[in-house]
Amino acid sequence: MAASLAVSVLMLIGKFTAYLLTGSAAIFSDAAESLVHILATAFVAFSLWYALQPPDPDHPYGHGKIAYFSAGFEGAMILLAAAGILYTAVQDLLHGPELRRLGLGVLLTALFSLINLLLGLYLIRVGRRHHSLVLEANGRHVLTDMWTSLGVVVGVALVAWTGVVWLDPLIAIVVALNILRTAFQLLRQAVAGLMERVDEEDTRRLIEVLDEAVQQGIISDYHQLRHRRTGDQLWVEYHLMLPGERSLEEAHAQAHRVEEAIQQRFPDRRVYVTAHLEPEHHEVAHPAGHREPEDPLKAQARR
């Protein structure tokens, strides 16, 4: 992450230099996006450090959810950059841009595009390997910066070739609209994580494991399945139903077999399971009635 931040600072200096040399609103849009990326990368670096802190009495589940705050912060910063770009572009459309030395601006921006491509692909690959939303979001931001730079290269080259100066602010507006899309994607992802939206693939795998346990006679049934994911951690809870005549030791052994099967189905995650054991005749165990919370995943558990 330190390398990403250092590269971003150098890119920012280069892009603002290109803007000062050319007066291009399109190149300014590229530089503004890079400034936002530096602020976001600095917050990402803090988030990575904070997420690795061990659980404490105030945060017994750890600190991994800061990844969603980080993604939301980055999305908000991109929104601000888009607003600034749109303002500058509209001003140039109304009053006319003053452009100069566009050839040099094209060469510098093309070089920055290549650097961003390599850096963005690297961050996304590392983020997916380690299930780090923070790194993956940062990598996506870098690739957005790359596409922004590439669009600016084509646009400014077209302005230099045709002499149609109003194309420059028009390109800046297109760039702003493009990065707005990325901003909303990051914000949606952040909100989904903070609201603990479940991953459908995780649900499918868990139901498969539990259904197999029923079919193999390890357990009689199950319900109240819930799960949530934070980074590379998967927290799972459920109620397992077993024959009432089994001893506590036998029931625990069967529950442990189910837990091991889940661990094997998620080899790249740190899985934490909490199981509540019940006799298979649930209504007999609670003759006076037993109020349980809603079971939202029950409909998907069709065996």
Class by alpha and beta content: mainly alpha
Low-confidence stretches are none
- Which strand order does the major sheet show? 1-2-3
Per CATH, the superfamily of the largest domain is Cation efflux protein transmembrane domain
What is the share of helical residues? Answer: 55-70%
Question: Do you know the CATH topology of the largest domain?
Answer: Alpha-lytic protease prodomain-like
CATH class of the largest domain: Mainly Alpha
Number of strands: 3
Q: How do the SSEs run, as a string of H and E?
A: HHHHHHHEEHEH
pLDDT average, as an integer?
Answer: 84
Main location: membrane
Domain Cation efflux protein cytoplasmic: 200-280
Biased composition (Basic and acidic residues): 281-297
Family: Belongs to the cation diffusion facilitator (CDF) transporter (TC 2.A.4) family.
What are its keywords?
303 residues, mainly alpha, Alpha-lytic protease prodomain-like, Alpha-Beta Plaits, 3-stranded mixed beta sheet, 9 helices, 10% strand, transmembrane helix, ferrous iron transmembrane transporter activity
